[in-house]
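Continuing the series of single-chain predictions for the mutant panel. This is the parent chain; the variants come on the following pages.
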Amino acid sequence: MEEKKKVAAAIAAVFKYISDEEKALVLQEGLQACRMSINPISFWSISGRQAGMQMRNLMQMKTFHIK
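Parent structure:
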């Protein structure tokens, strides 16, 4: 009976270790994904988007008359 308890405790410890390792791996992958999704700010792209929005705004206000 005592031997079965020791075996069960050893098996439980191994499973706990494996699950902790898997959780740590998932956490590291998540952190890497977050780091990769953060891009530096490109002022040229911001300027281009702003110019496009301004052009659409002028079109909506019918500033340009196409003949």
